[in-house]
Amino acid sequence: MESPDEFQFLRRFRTRLYILVFETNTRSGRIFDIVLLWTILLSIIAVVLESVDEINSKYGTFFSIAEWTFTLIFTFEYLTRLFISRRPLSYALSFYGIVDLLATIPTYLALFFAGGGYLVVIRALRLLRVFRILKLSRQLGEAQMLGKALVASRHKISVFLGAVLATVIIMGTMMYMIEGGENGFTSIPRSIYWAIVTITTVGYGDIAPTTVIGQLFASMLMLMGYAIIAVPTGIVTAEIAVTHVDQQVKKRDENYKSCEECLTHDHELKAKFCKYCGAVMKKSRRKNVSRDYDIL
Amino acid sequence: MESPDEFQFLRRFRTRLYILVFETNTRSGRIFDIVLLWTILLSIIAVVLESVDEINSKYGTFFSIAEWTFTLIFTFEYLTRLFISRRPLSYALSFYGIVDLLATIPTYLALFFAGGGYLVVIRALRLLRVFRILKLSRQLGEAQMLGKALVASRHKISVFLGAVLATVIIMGTMMYMIEGGENGFTSIPRSIYWAIVTITTVGYGDIAPTTVIGQLFASMLMLMGYAIIAVPTGIVTAEIAVTHVDQQVKKRDENYKSCEECLTHDHELKAKFCKYCGAVMKKSRRKNVSRDYDIL
Amino acid sequence: MESPDEFQFLRRFRTRLYILVFETNTRSGRIFDIVLLWTILLSIIAVVLESVDEINSKYGTFFSIAEWTFTLIFTFEYLTRLFISRRPLSYALSFYGIVDLLATIPTYLALFFAGGGYLVVIRALRLLRVFRILKLSRQLGEAQMLGKALVASRHKISVFLGAVLATVIIMGTMMYMIEGGENGFTSIPRSIYWAIVTITTVGYGDIAPTTVIGQLFASMLMLMGYAIIAVPTGIVTAEIAVTHVDQQVKKRDENYKSCEECLTHDHELKAKFCKYCGAVMKKSRRKNVSRDYDIL
Amino acid sequence: MESPDEFQFLRRFRTRLYILVFETNTRSGRIFDIVLLWTILLSIIAVVLESVDEINSKYGTFFSIAEWTFTLIFTFEYLTRLFISRRPLSYALSFYGIVDLLATIPTYLALFFAGGGYLVVIRALRLLRVFRILKLSRQLGEAQMLGKALVASRHKISVFLGAVLATVIIMGTMMYMIEGGENGFTSIPRSIYWAIVTITTVGYGDIAPTTVIGQLFASMLMLMGYAIIAVPTGIVTAEIAVTHVDQQVKKRDENYKSCEECLTHDHELKAKFCKYCGAVMKKSRRKNVSRDYDIL
């Protein structure tokens, strides 16, 4: 039977572990996360290098051991997280919970299915934890701003991608009919693949038009791709620029103060009298966040 | 002879059919359109897969039947639309009318001309109907904004394309003279094709300069292409950004009200007195659309 | 001896010819220019098609005759322009004068030097005359705006191109040392050519790194190229956007009127009194162009 | 023993040398720098041409002599700079000092290690001196503005590059598993190299997917790359555009004057009375730099 002391010790231990594993604001939590990130990075590098035949034939055993060591560490870490989490299920179903699980499974799978072991590169997604460490730093703010700009543009981008896909299907089929199988356009799916390779200006050259009409159509597709790359760029740029300007407007707003008489908020800091009710204004530089914009 | 009842039934049936087929605001009309879109999508996938030799040799008969089924459905749909339309001719000559017709013809043509059947991918254009379903949703607004930006840039883009074409003709001819037929530049049209492949940064590599002077010229063309891709991007971006700002200005305008005394329109919603005539203003939040802009 | 009548007839003929050939505002001048443009276009198409072996072997004689006909027409046109021009030398030394001359010479040269005949594609430059026809139309305005944006960005773009060239020279030399001649990097110039092909994302694939270190360096160069394409785009976009906003500011300025008492210019059209001297203002909507900006 | 005169002569000589070598504002210093730049350029061209086998076999001796001459000149120049510099160590450790040293060493190294001689292209970095000559010209201002925009975007760009790298690692591994060694994807590093070649739209075509699923994944990667190139472009563009607007706001600010009574700074130049305290204002066009912005 556990004594109350022992029980309390366990509880305190669990709390401390929780802080170590889940918190990033404390010093120990930070160190834990940094060590974890380097371990993840090393395990990814190990998988990548293991795939090179020359290296694997020499150091194969070493990499096998390394892989199993990393997997056992991550398995232990996953179980610990599950154990100390206040709501284990909600952790297990969260984005990080699923990624943490997927980062360990492939090695076990590889015991039954050859090749499955490479799936451990899913661990690369664990590196996203890096943003948690940098939680309070600039990067996250920038990433959020980028993300915000992308989310704000999602409708425009989906319309754009739809138009690209329609173009690619029609052009691919036409090239299949023009060039035919003897020039590499052996099927419509393959011709659509060629059209994507062309419109995105990748241009491998594994399939290339050889007839005059085919080259004419391909030229049109290229110029089209060249011109319409402008569209997503334009969308994202405009979005970022507007977000940017918004931020600066916000900053400027902090240079306004409120009138305590009539509760209006758009008074310049140097104003001596309220422009709406004429009350004498304080000189305080108090920031004003709840102001409703009426200037762009 | 038809009795009046029967006649009225037919008229009501036609109206109901009209709502089903042409309207998208009613529930049944929406379902009809969604079913139609999936049918179109399936028919396109069938055509695309049919072109793969391995699949066609196995399931050729199945695909032939599917193709004819789809074509008969679309033919029936086209005739129905023609029949129930209040002005059949104006439907037949509208964009959607022509696309609907073109979506059925190729299969019939394929009876006489081999290969013509692939033209049915014109059906991909029917997918544009998707915008009708989303009529009231955001996407259409975004698409319109994109379209507006592109239309507003059409003159600039045509000037730009003209300059690109002139560059490509001159550079293509010079490369034909420099490299000659033994290096793949067998004719001026082919050299122009190469120049387009290069300036758009596609770069298949099926034709590539091998002489030193040829590579020097090609390098210049690449750097040119690299620098001038900035131009269409810049045009579209500026256009989108300006449209964006305009929209926000419009939104802000909705926060202004009119003075009913002197009929001026630029009063802040919180204003108590007209700034021009001094009349007491109403508190109503009535939107004001007819205001003439005097702030950018 | 010429009679005065005959002399006057000649002078009037010359004037009329001048209007026909040089002016584009009159109807006859416009028709002349359009006919000329089509002739130029036809002569370019003839040269381009002549270079295709299959076509030339069949219709060689036809193309020779066409080429000489076009050349004689252009020679006659050039001499006419020289004859009727008020200052023949200044025409001969102008951009159009030089292009007009260069458009005829190659055919004569081809009598002495084989292959020289292809230089007639310089005629493509004559197509720039199209802008003269469209003189008063939108396109020229757009082209000017584009040109203005490019000229305004020329310093930034030259700095950018300088940086790209330095990168390309250094990376090219390093790849020459890493990959060596056996992998296609046979000399530094050729390696620099490869670096340009890579940084501009053209990527022919005629030369490609095969060693691991070479591929690592190439990857870095690609990501660099991918990131820095943003720079010229950003420059031109910002320039175009600013020009755009300027234009709209100008348009808005046309909605301001002047005070005739104190000669200040920034009064809203609806203002009843001058905000500087208090004088009663006219209601006239007279445009005001000489206003000095004090709002961005 | 040196006489004082001789000593003073030496000191004066050193000062004059210092001005010649380090200053660019004097005429002699400018000429020195221009001569130096041409020497650097010539030495780089020599190294580049020497690597071409045909040229080297003919003029090998000439290039060897040229290379040694250039190296001795640069060595002498480096020692002179070191000798006349007031703080030799701080020069030796400065960016230009290190580049100057690295520009001479490789030739000496080449005596011991074959091939090391090509490292002299590091001299290309010495060309950055060109900016010193242009110190007072526009270019530097533009370069600074570009640099500022890039520095301001560094966090966003690093987040973006991180996302690209994660995508490339995961996609590379998946393609390694899908395509396998027989299609060129012989190891994960090589597959990652392929993914970079693809996402940057370079597309050499030395490795290209051949299976249907591989081509599907590759298409997704291309469209992704095509869409996300918009992100760095958008970032830099927005940054440049905002910097641009800032500059114009600054310019405008120079059109404002201060009230000497109440020390407010936002008075239009034409204002006759202070709008805050009513004091009569001077007409002086004195620029006002310390004004705090309250208009974007």
List keywords for this structure.
two-stranded antiparallel ribbon; Four Helix Bundle (Hemerythrin (Met), subunit A); 3 domains; homotetramer; mainly alpha; Helix Hairpins; 296 residues; 12 helices
Describe the protein:
The structure is a homotetramer of 296-residue chains. Helix content of chain A is 65%, strand content 1%. The C terminus of chain A is likely disordered. In chain A, helix 2 runs antiparallel to helix 3. The first copy, chain A, folds into 3 domains: 132 residues, Voltage-gated potassium channels. Chain C (Four Helix Bundle (Hemerythrin (Met), subunit A), Up-down Bundle); 102 residues, Helix Hairpins (Orthogonal Bundle); 39 residues, no CATH class. The first copy, chain A, has a two-stranded antiparallel sheet. Chain A is flat. Chain A starts with a helix and ends in a 28-residue tail after the last strand. The longest helix of chain A has 32 residues. By secondary structure, chain A is mainly alpha-helical. The relative contact order of chain A is 0.06. Chains in contact: A-B, A-C, A-D, B-C, B-D, C-D. Chains A and D meet through helix 2, helix 8, helix 9, helix 10 and helix 12 of A and helix 9, helix 10, helix 11 and helix 12 of D.
